[in-house]
Design brief:
The chain is about 90% helix and about 0% strand. The chain has helices at about 5-35, 40-65, 65-75, 80-115. The chain is elongated, with a radius of gyration of 18 Å.
Length: about 120
């Protein structure tokens, strides 16, 4: 397999691994989301799930293309522009969810201290 053909596969596999690492965290965030309804954590989580679904959709479209179309997309950097923006959004949302989880923990600790 040539360099042009191998690179998208590795990028897609890397992204799938990152998504796989993220999903267990989403289950954990779910328990904190109910404690912070005013911070919009539900919206962030929904958007994160939308990003994951969009990634899968784009990956399937890319993988379904002919070899000539894939090489053309790589040459014009279409591949990276499609996937990088989705992966960057997912990363930012994961960081935001982590911050919201920290806020929920701090809020719970403060409430325990008030009792």
């Amino acid at each position: 397999m040539g360099t042009y053909q191998a690179h998208p596969w590795y990028t897609i596999l890397d992204a799938l691994a990152k998504i796989g690492e993220t999903i267990p965290g989403l289950v954990i965030y779910h328990s904190f989301i109910d404690k912070l309804p005013t911070l919009g954590a539900h919206v962030v989580l929904e958007k994160m799930i939308d990003d994951i679904l969009e990634f899968y959709q784009e990956a399937l479209v890319f993988l379904d293309r002919t070899k000539r179309q894939k090489v053309r997309d790589l040459f014009w950097k279409t591949f990276h522009s499609q996937f990088d923006s989705i992966l960057n959004r997912m990363k930012r949302r994961a960081e935001l969810l982590e911050s919201l989880k920290t806020l929920a923990t701090a809020k719970a600790l403060m409430e325990m201290g008030e009792k």
